[in-house]
Amino acid sequence: MLFAGIVSLLDMVNPKIISFTVDSVIGTKTPALPEAARLLVDAAGGVETLRAHPVLIAAAVIGVGLLAALSRYIFRMTNALGAETFVRKMRDDLFAHIMYLPYTWHGENSTGDIIQRCTSDVQTIKRFISEQLVQLFRTVIMIVLALIFMGRIHFKVMLGSAVMIPVIVLYSLVFHVKIGSAFEKVDEEEGVLSSIVQENLTGVRVVRAFGREDYERGRFEKQNNYYTGFWIRLMTISSMYWSVADILTGL
Predict the structure, then answer these.
(1) Predicted TM-score of the model (pTM)
(2) Any idea what DSSP says for residue 246?
(3) Distance CA 18, CA 24 (A)
């Protein structure tokens, strides 16, 4: 999380350097810099020195870019390592838990559904931890930094932009409630599909002995179409959400 915050901060530094260069180095606008940035400019010799030696600005942009790249590399490596370690332990604990469940539980739950819980569902949790949770953290940091930078430039414009934040959050919560049931249904149908595959693979001799290939194929295709239909519906809802969200964030 630390390096995610550093990456978010560094991603916003270079645009500020370029803005400062255009406005105050190439142009004649009086710079309005944070105290830390002002000290760095003074240490470099001031605006006049930067105007006479633009290579210093180029070096600063390159340096920030390299630092951002290094931070992003460390962030991705530590994020992947942490997520994989967490998921590995989760798989081990889940498998051990399933092994000690009573036989009646195994009879009440299909094998395909159990397999999905140990594979697909675990991967979903991994994606949430390694991608979505981190993106949420980065988004919050970027919003805070953007509001700070905007507030220093024009406070009223910043307030106008901040008005849309509660609207977007509320819209996201409504979408979460609506799509949650759809995701659950898709997950259930995927479990049924996995069960059909598992049953036919383990009982392939019986299927062939009784000439039930066409029947089992039809059963699989029917469930596959059913599952695909739910998935398309889910993607339709998701597409509508992102389309409206893009409009709201662009206002």
Answers:
(1) 0.62
(2) H
(3) 10
